[in-house]
Amino acid sequence: MSGVRHLYLHLPFCAHRCGYCDFVTLVGRADRHTAYVDALLAELRLEASLLADELETVYLGGGTPTFTEPEALARLLGALPAPPAAEVTVEANPETVTPALASRLRRQGATRVSLGAQSFQPELLAVLERRATPVAVRSAFYHLRDAGFDNISLDLLYGIPGQSASDLELDLAEAIALGPEHLSCYELEAKPGTRFTHVHGEELVRQADAMEGYFEFVVATLRGAGYRWYETANFCRPGRQARHNIAYWQGRDYLGIGIGAVSTVNGLRWRNRPSLGGYVRALAEERRPPREEEPLEPHVQSRERLMLGLRLDEPVPLAEVEGAVDGAALARMERLGLARRTGGGLALTTRGRFLGGGVTAELLTPGSE
Amino acid sequence: MALERIRNFSIVAHIDHGKSTLADRILEVTKTLSERQMREQVLDSMDLERERGITIKAQAVRVEWRGHQLNLIDTPGHVDFTYEVSRALQACEGALLVVDAAQGIEAQTLANAYLALENDLEIVPVVNKIDLPQSDPSATAADVAKLVGEDSDRVLRISAKTGAGIEAVLDAVVERIPSPEGDPAAPPRALVFDSSYDQYRGVVAFVRMVDGRFTPRQRLRAMAAGTRFEAEELGFFSPDRSPTETLEAGEVGYVVTGLKDVSRLRVGDTLTAEERPASHPLPGYKDVKPTVFAGLYPTESDDYPDLRDALEKLKLNDASLFYEPETSRALGFGFRCGFLGLLHMEIVRERLEREFDLDLLVTAPNVAYRVLTKGGEELEVHNPADMPTEIELVEEPYIRATTIVPKDYVGSVMELNNDRRGRFHHMEYLSEERVLLAYDLPLADIVYDYYDQLKSRTRGYASFDYDVIGFEAGELVRLDVLLAGDPVDALSLIVHRTAAYGRGRALVDRLRVEIPRQMFDVPVQAAVGSRIIARETIKARRKDVLAKCYGGDITRKRKLLERQKKGKKRMKQVGAVEVPQEAFLAVLNLDGEKK
Q: How many CB pairs under 8 A join A and B?
């Protein structure tokens, strides 16, 4: 067995929880940062035997990893078994990125930063309860460039309550002007139960028709600016795909460390419980943290392979999704110009990708769940 | 038992006027059942009946009262079962006409009273629920007396709920209702007024012996159907089956036939003995025909065999249920079913769903049409999709609808009936407040949304009843719906030519809302023949993606897609278009039809 080559580390701390967020995050708790990083390192030691000698990618996600107490973060980065060629991504919120932090990250081995810009319009950032101003977003970007990062990704949100078509156009123009290597563009999801949905849900329903074309507009604009639409929500300059995320979409094994983190290794998926106390306590005793396990039957794996693979612009090898594709549905989707077979592979057409969820649901063989 | 000691009677009433409660009290007062054994509404043995407060199958129970044998024959209380009611009444010499003191005379009170009078029954009028504070027993008694031509102090006043006046009712049955006539020595003749199916013993016939007697193991014959069988057991209900050694002229009881098919022994048929057969049957047998039809399809096409089995089983107990296999391009394999009326349809559907745990899709109901084609062929069409295009003449069934409403609502009812192609027949003041309206209407216009409209326009104060009076020619056309250019057979309708445009427009508007957006534009059209009379487009979806999907999201997103997949399974694939089940019912309630 060759070992897992992709490692995710979860750093849950945030200065503030944004209204639309449903991730595992913890506000403040500066006193626990050190203990938590100790626990992360302990878990990493416990699972070290699963890892390959050389990691290909490491991803520090959050939360706001860059909000983590600097010394603790430094210790974590310093301890990562990542060779120089590995992609080491750190998520950052613009307001946390100072010139000092940027150069520290670079020094400590980060090769890529994913910057949560979300928007460049002050009113929309306020709606999202983001703390950064548009100026802060731009400054953060330049600080990172100055520190030597040549692989920066920007996160943008569209479909924000009150966002007009011209707001979106401006956001995209601002983002393109910065020249990031990579962009992730997500439609804002008003997730049930979040404070945000409570406040803005009705407005979003009202806007749904007007915002229907935003996705197409995002894709057309970024493609026009020379970005490749390589995944449903992701765009890149040639060769600048997020290698870590590609691993997920290609169905490779990954190890997730930290509260709420998910791992998938050798047909077993597990998710650490989200409680900080339980996590730190267990690892203080060098025990595995409490977690939920989900065995993945081979047929489930191939269904996931299909569902994830169709998010990409490159075909999924049909051999890897055997049993998951409904032949009659495939013929129908081909007739409708939504899917296409190329050699031994299956991919969605451009129009098919806009309807990717529905098309994938069509293509899946009737499930067992 | 000597004829003069027997009384056969039934209770007739409008729905909810207290028929079943009175029957319960009679069982109690005559000690047929101890109080402990009493269950609410013992006679209604099916759960569904108890819940809906209606009696579906007639039952008969024997009680003893002051040296007399009283046979209480319960009758179904609804218009759909008029023929069954009439046979049950034919088995009696008298009837208790029960009227709610607070509600007064209602449409079914009248219908049942007339049926009883037509059958020459002695009517004992009873005003029930005199304990209710809002009741007006004297006024109701006066109305009922007028209706049946009795003196108003001969109208009994009771409360079946509290038990007040029940003994007087039983005394009146003995005193006022004549004993049966019949010839105990003649060749036996028994009227089948109902039957049920027993899983172990086959068809059990409920009979009224008119002449002669039956004994166990006797060879019997149904004179109309020609069915022969041996009487495996004779008996009466008290209210459970109590076997006896003989059923004699005048008595009411049951015969266990061992027959495996209820359709071989129809209500209204006459049983006689093989060795000494009667020369002619009792009068009044007729073959009841379904008036309302609908397609029944399993929601999951895999359930088709289960639906077939369920219909077979249901048919064992319900000879009036008609069904034949049908294939719809839109819905797949199912059955075209015929019912005695809308309530009958509702009951069958509920029983299929409840007792057989089936998920059904029921198409909009329609009536039977008689068609003369240009080629001179005569057809009966039960499914709009089967309506030929080259038509010389189409006839549709008409009903006489009797509606009783408080006088303030007369205008609303007239307006509704006029909208539904009704012809005014007559109007009558039953009292200062209550008006009877009689209209002739095409049955087709009743099966679609009429009850709901009547209810809402009269705030639920109207009572309604109808009789099929015959067929009439009409200017009828088939209205087709096309989705993405393909006709959807399950959505075809027969409508009057003048209504085609409005219905077509309403249907198209409704479908545009009911059918979710697809991955491509879907034109929705309504057409008469090759002429498109209404058109809408369901615009294609432009976006349907799961925004983020990273390592921690995969399980959840997979489940989301599986759910989406399952949701699709509940849709019917019509050509390339996915149509939700509800859309097939769109034809049933077209809001905006009047606009």
A: 101
For A351, nearest residue in chain B (alpha carbons)? B542
Q: What is the DSSP string of B271-283?
A: EEESSS--SSPPS
Q: Where are the domains of chain B?
A: 3-176, 189-273, 292-363, 370-460, 477-588
Tokens matching residue B192:
């089948």
Q: Model ipTM?
A: 0.91
Q: Which of B42, B97, B32 is nearest to B70 (CA)?
A: B32
Nearest to B509 by CA among B592, B437, B570: B592
A161 min Cα distance to partner chain B (Å): 17
Q: Is B397 left (phi over 0), alpha (psi -120 to 50) or beta?
A: beta
Topology of B3-176 in CATH?
Rossmann fold (3.40.50)
B555 reaches A (C-beta below 8 A): yes
Q: Is the whole model's pTM more than 0.90, yes or no?
A: no
Residue B339 tokens, joined: 């019912």
Fold of B292-363: Alpha-Beta Plaits (3.30.70)
Query: Across the interface, do A186 and B547 touch by the CB < 8 Å criterion?
Result: yes
**Ramachandran quadrant class, B202 (left: phi over 0; alpha: psi -120 to 50; beta: rest):** left
Decide which of 2.60.120.470, 2.60.40.10, 2.40.30.10, 1.10.630.10 is the CATH code for B189-273.
2.40.30.10
CB neighbour list of residue B512: distance below 8 Å, 6 or more residues apart: B524, B536, B537, B538
Q: B572 vs chain A: nearest CA distance in angstroms?
A: 14
Nearest-CA residue of chain A relative to B556? A304
Yes or no, beta carbons of A213 and B542 under 8 Å apart? yes
- Which residues neighbour A169 within 8 Å (Cβ) at sequence distance 6 or greater? A217, A221
* pLDDT tens for each residue of B242-273: 899 999 999 999 999 999 887 788 888 999 99
C-alpha torsion A174→A180→A184→A189, nearest 10: -30
Beta bridge partners of A154: A115, A183
Cβ atoms of residues B170 and B254 within 8 Å: no
For domain B370-460, say whether CATH 3.40.50.12780 is its number: no
Tokens of B489: 């057979």
**Cβ–Cβ contacts within 10 Å for residue A345, how many?**
16
CA A26 to CA A68: how far, in whole Å?
11
Closest CA to B170 of B65, B305, B253, B48: B65
Name the residue in chain B with its Cα closest to that of A361.
Answer: B565
- Ordered domains of chain A (ranges, CATH): 6-249 (3.20.20.70), 299-363 (1.10.10)
Identify the closest residue of chain B to A367 by CA–CA distance: B562
Residues of A with Cβ-Cβ distance to B566 under 8 angstroms? 367
Mutate to test the interface with B, among A212, A264, A307 (most CBs of B within 10 A): A307
Question: How many Cβ atoms sit within 10 Å of the Cβ of residue A313?
Answer: 15
- Decide if B292-363 and B477-588 have a common fold: yes
How far is B165 from B147, CA to CA, in rounded Å?
Answer: 22
pLDDT over 60 (residue B56): no
Nearest CB partner across the interface for B558, out of A263, A303, A335: A303
Residue A366 with chain B: CB contacts under 8 Å? 565, 569
pLDDT single digits (tens) A13-32: 998 888 888 777 888 788 89
pLDDT > 50? residue A343: yes
Q: Does the domain spanning B477-588 belong to CATH 3.30.70.2570?
A: yes
Q: Name residue A192's beta-bridge partners.
A: none
